Amino acid sequence: MNLMNHEKHYNTLHNYYLQTYQKKVFKIALNGGFTCPNIDGTVATGGCTFCSYMGSGDFAGNKLEPLKVQFEKIKSMMHQKWEEGYYIAYFQANTNTHAPLERLKALYEEAITLDPHIVLLSIGTRPDVLPDDVIEYLGELNTRMPVQIELGLQTIHQVTSDLINRAHDLACFDDAVKRLRQKKIEVVVHIINGLPFETKQMMIETIKHLNTLDIQGIKIHMLHLMEKTKMGYQYKKNPWKLMTLEDYVDVTVEQIGWLRKDIIIHRLTGDAPQAMLIAPDWTKKKFVVTNEIDKKMRHMNLWQGDYDEKERLA
Fold it and tell me: Is residue 4 part of a domain?
């Protein structure tokens, strides 16, 4: 499916959903009250060093409220921007498969019935919290309601992964993708550009590895340093060189050039609550970031996957 055009030289999620559903589709970010296995001691403690105390669910619903209340509140907010559309029930905060199967079943089955216009269930999780019984159930659920797993990776480089306390290795991630795809479950991968001491080449190597896997989507984020995170404390104590806007645009454009042509790009920027953001300030200007990426790709006449395709044909 080619979703590229003059303005966007890559496959955008917006265009993908318009082609698939002929209507605007937006996510309703729900909070199921989960924690993480590298917070509660299952695999480690302390959590990922970049992650906020809200478990990357800074814009999700209130975990103290029922799912229906969360859904209706956020749906109402979204409709202030878009008059109509279909919905994705999105379990965002923390690790949303980190619970006994019966609890997961209860939450997911409730979520897909919250509104007749829900077209997809999206679940954010880690590769080390997908036991066989959960994948088996998700495979069955996927025959009734499309299921999408958002899988955190951040980087393929173990030295960085250890530094940020991911507490799993690349083999674990690759295996999770393989087992999910055996059940025909859509996989969307999260990566972060600008992690401490990573070079441009390291970030491009992450993309090249993902090209070898059966993934359907990617979210590319920049690093946010936030208050009340371990990495934020580390930065305040001993600052290191952060990516500039120009650095981020440069590496992200090259990553898109290497990214396999069939992969849908879900995001090219990320959000941090402004009151919590330590740095970089330029990350607040999301539209500036995406506009600069688009401008550079048009200037270079570079399209998603051009470098990858050229290498394959060489």
Answer: no
What is the tally of structural domains in the chain?
A: 1
d(Cα 221, Cα 269) in Å, to the nearest integer?
Answer: 5
How does pLDDT run across 120-176, given as a tens digit for each residue? 999 999 999 999 999 999 999 999 999 999 999 999 999 999 999 898 999 999 999
Is the residue at 7 inside a domain? no
Q: Which of 203, 299, 298 shows the shortest CA–CA distance to 254?
A: 203
Distance CA 296, CA 290 (A): 10
Mark residue 248 as left, alpha or beta (left: phi above 0; alpha: psi -120 to 50; beta: remaining). alpha
**165 and 202 in contact (C-beta within 8 Å)?**
no
CB 291 within 8 A of CB 269: no
| pTM greater than 0.90 | yes
CATH number at residue 41: 3.20.20
The token pair at 278 is: 């330590």
Among 189, 154, 184, CA closest to 168: 154
State which residues form the domain around 240. Answer: 13-313
Is 8 a domain residue? no
Positions in the chain short of pLDDT 50: 55, 57
Q: What share of the chain is helix, strand, coil (3-state, %, to 5)?
A: 40, 15, 45
Residues 6+ apart with CB under 8 A from 87: 25, 26, 27, 28, 75, 115, 117, 118, 119
